[in-house]
Amino acid sequence: MTTRRTEGRGRRFDSILDTVGDTPVVRINRLAPEGVTIYVKVEAFNPAASVKDRLALGIIEAAERSGALKPGQTVVEATSGNTGIGLAMACAAKGYPLVITMADSFSVERRKLMRFLGAKVVLTPRAEKGLGMYRKARELADKNGWFYARQFENEANADMHEATTAREIVADFAGERLDYFVTGYGTGGTVTGVGRVLRKERPETKIVLSEPTNAALVKSGKPQKRGADGGPEESHPAFEPHPIQGWTPDFIPLVLQEALDSGYCDELIPVSGPDGIEWARRLAKEEGIFTGVSGGSTFAVSMQIAERAELGTVVLCMLPDTGERYLSTPLFEGIGEDMDAEEAAISMSTPGYQMP
Ligand code: PMP
């Protein structure tokens, strides 16, 4: 698959799954420093509103092709949310039952979304971190003969980004300058898949990887202990719980390891959760672009690059999901339900229809 999945959205499709990918790249018009252009790739345009729709479809269709997934077989996966939502959409559209394991620390709306899309969500104790939900999924798959999606090790993950995300970027910047590609990592599928293609076709584009300041696994330089299947053997020593949901599990995923070993990361810039939240809020208020904490964090790093870059520089920043997925999280802290003083004053400035 080396073609774009869709040729624009304003037409008829045979399945919701045919609308995965081909997300828009949008210029930042008010926040970017003068003389530098920042573009964002808005993955919320995917049908289940995150970048993980790509991986979900990629893994399911690769397993159908290889025969690893049989008609009607149950799919199981460990996920902090977006992968589960994408898989729930894909499994609903294709008729596979889906069981998700998920630590109980992730936002409640994510669980509800998966259940709404027909998945069963099995919670695991937050104290057991990412490894707990991962091992639970393995246990369930082994006992029941289910298809385990294994997003952190599955080759179909980066392959899908190579075939779609990367092709879209190359096409959107054909004949034009692209100095930086900025992304964080969860599984590393995005950076590995895009890295494979940019290195060959846009060798001048610098790839900037980010991770949470307080969970700087890659920056620590300490290797990940792995089992025979490439999965994590134990939690990485540099891990600490962080507020950037979807980023940096408590181990360095095998899928990301390819990007590190192949030199797809020119620069590693950590970012703090509060900075990410701040920039997600500013993107919403000052650009009308609604993204989650990981998008805000990637944008925070993109702004740092833009501030120090020479005039004419072009930066592309990944925005993995929608801010709507974070209503019950710190991203919305301080966003009230009732009128604040300013809103009450507007209400009282005319005589009619005032609240008691
Ligand atoms: N941001 C969010 C919100 C995510 O859910 C994910 C995927 N877990 C990512 C970023 C990172 O994407 P990838 O797995 O391709 O590294």
Q: Biggest sheet, open or closed, and with what strands and sense?
A: 6 strands, mixed
> In total, how many beta strands?
10
Helix-and-strand structural type: alpha/beta
As laid out across the biggest beta sheet, the strand order is 1-2-10-7-8-9
What is the straight-line distance between the termini? Answer: 61 Å
Average the pLDDT over all residues and give the rounded result. Answer: 95
Instruction: Tell me the fraction of residues in β-strands, as a range.
Output: 5-15%
Based on the structure given, which CATH architecture of the largest domain is correct? 3-Layer(aba) Sandwich
Number of structurally distinct domains: 2
Order of helices and strands: EEHEHEHEHEHHEHEHEHHEH
Small molecules bound in the structure, each named once: 4'-deoxy-4'-aminopyridoxal-5'-phosphate
Radius of gyration: 21 Å
- By DSSP (H or I, 4+ residues per run), the number of helices equals 11
Q: What is the 3D shape? A: globular
Name the poorly predicted regions: none
CATH class designation of the largest domain: Alpha Beta
Percentage of residues assigned to helices: 25-40%
CATH topology of the largest domain: Rossmann fold
Salient structural properties:
356 residues; four-stranded parallel sheet; binds 4'-deoxy-4'-aminopyridoxal-5'-phosphate; six-stranded mixed sheet; single chain; alpha/beta; Rossmann fold
